[in-house]
Amino acid sequence: MSMLTPPGMGGKYRITGDKYPRMRRPRRRGKLILAALASVVALGLAGWGTLQLIDVFTGGSKKADAAGHKKDCPTAVASAPAKVLPEPAKITVNVYNATPRGGLAKQAADELKKRGFTIGKVGNAPETYDKKVAGPGVLLGAPSATNGSLQVLGTQLEGAVPKTDTRKTADIDLILGTKFTAFNSPRSAAAALTALTKPSPAPSC
Fold this sequence. Notes:
The chain is α/β, with parallel strands linked by helices. The protein has two domains: 31-72; 88-197, Alpha-Beta Plaits, CATH 3.30.70. It has helices at residues 29-57, 60-72, 104-114, 149-154, 186-197; strands at residues 92-97, 118-124, 137-141, 161-164, 172-176. A five-stranded mixed sheet has the order 2-1-5-3-4. Helix 3 links the parallel strand 1 and strand 2. The longest helix has 29 residues, at 29-57. The chain is rod-shaped, with a radius of gyration of 47 Å.
C-alpha cells in the first residue's frame, strides 16, 4: 500500500495522480430546501382548510348573506302616521230593514246609538234592497266615505259589504240583510277600530 493511500481505505483506492479523492458525502442542501418549502405549503393548505370548515360550521355564510342583504336593502322609509278616522258621534247612520222581520231597524238603531253613533232615518229598506240583501248587511255612502265613515261603521258588523252611491251628503246607510243576527261585541269592534288606526310598520332589512 502506498504511503499516499489514506488509512482505512484497505487498498481499494489508489492514488495515481496528485489529487486526493473527496472523502465527504455530497451535500443535500437543495433537497432540504425543497422539503422545507413543501412542508410550509402543506401546513398552509391545512390551515386554510381548517378555517373553511370553521366558517361553515359557525355560520359564516349566514353572516355573508346578512351583509349582502343589508347592502341591497333599500333605504328605510319612515312608518306611515296613524290613520285618523271620524268618531262615531260625528257619523250619522240611517238604519234600514231589508228583512221580513218587523222592528229590526229600530233595534239596530238603538244599539248603534248606545255605541256613540248619531242616528238619522230608521225604517224599511228601499225597493232596490228590500228582501234582496242575502248577507248580514250593506253599508252605503258617498265615495268620500269609503276610507272613513264606512270603515268605522264596518267595525260594528262583520260581513257587511261596503258600497258607494251618488249622494253628496256625509250620512251613511246601514241596510240589514237576512243573515243579520247581532252586531260585533263592543270589545271586538273596538279592537277592529284600533287595527284600522295603527300606523304601517317601516320595512326592515
